[in-house]
Amino acid sequence: MKFVIQRVKNANVKVENQIVGKIDTGFLVLIGITHTDTKEIADSLIKKMINLRVFTDKNHKMNLSLKDIKGELLLISQFTLYADCKKGNRPSFTKSAKFEIAENLYQYIIEECKKTEINVQTGTFGAEMKVNLINDGPVTILLDSDEI
Q1: In DSSP terms, which residues pair with 142 in a beta bridge?
Q2: Whole-prediction pTM
Q3: Which of 25, 34, 38, 80 is catalytic?
Q4: Based on CB atoms within 10 Å of each CB, which residue in 1, 98, 100, 128 is the most buried?
Q5: Distance between CA atoms of 118 and 26, rounded to whole angstroms?
Q6: How does DSSP classify residue 128?
Q7: Which domains does the chain have, with CATH numbers?
């Protein structure tokens, strides 16, 4: 599982020209799911993400978490995070989880994040989406379950 976490001033996602998710200060998170991912892996990444201390304190040090600043989450599924570009110029997406498995884990991640009392907004699974954001910093962190 991969979470690409971007610290944002604000972000939104549109489907068919309609905003379906919108946040102010917080994290825009692109979520990639592969065949071997489980709820336990999701739980581990969620815990790490919620507690990442990447927001600045009064001394301008990255020392505060999403919970500390009462930030928001915009969660967007993105199967292309598992693109394999080793052969040729057309990526292969065979490492991405099958639609049904990925959708179930994505919904699980949403529900678990909502339990943290953080405002959670989402994209639409499987839809063509347009994402707009103001990256703050810029700060972008990759959480990869193979590396934590």
Answers
A1: 4
A2: 0.96
A3: 80
A4: 1
A5: 10
A6: -
A7: 2-144 (3.50.80.10)
